[in-house]
């Protein structure tokens, strides 16, 4: 079972890495008036999510970090939606990002559940 848990942690980190790569290629194309606020915040939040997940992997006291990451995913969902509504992202691109965040969120939810103390 621990092997499966480690594999799941690696998957959520890899999926987040892939979303950062995807995002960098899209936020750089945002209209100038949104690139330096919304685009930069999106990227910064993705990097912060990535760092929280990596830190969580290497500590025993991970629950608080994972819950921060979970909250950050919710912020990112709204930021991606805002990017779509402001026409910075096409509908297909928004759909890709929304599905990626949903998948990352599910993986993170499982990790949180498995990290909670057994009662």
Beta percentage is under 5%
Shape: elongated
The tally of structural domains comes to 1
Count up the helices: 4
First and last CA, distance: 19 Å
Number of strands: 0
**CATH hierarchy class name:** Mainly Alpha
Low-confidence blocks of residues: none
Quaternary structure classification: single chain
Helix percentage:
over 70%
User: What radius of gyration results from the CA coordinates?
Assistant: 15 Å
What is the second-level CATH architecture?
Up-down Bundle
Mean of residue pLDDT? 93
Here the CATH topology equals: de novo design (two linked rop proteins)
Largest sheet: none
Structural class: mainly alpha
Topology:
Blueprint: H1 2-27, H2 32-57, H3 63-85, H4 91-115
Question: Care to describe what's here?
Answer:
The chain has 119 residues and is mainly alpha-helical. The protein has 4 helices and no strands. It has helices spanning 2-27, 32-57, 63-85, 91-115. The longest helix has 26 residues, at 2-27.
Summarize the structure.
With 119 residues, the chain is an all-alpha fold. Helices cover 84% and strands 0% of the residues. The protein is elongated.
Task: Describe this protein with a few key phrases.
119 residues; mainly alpha; de novo design (two linked rop proteins); 4 helices
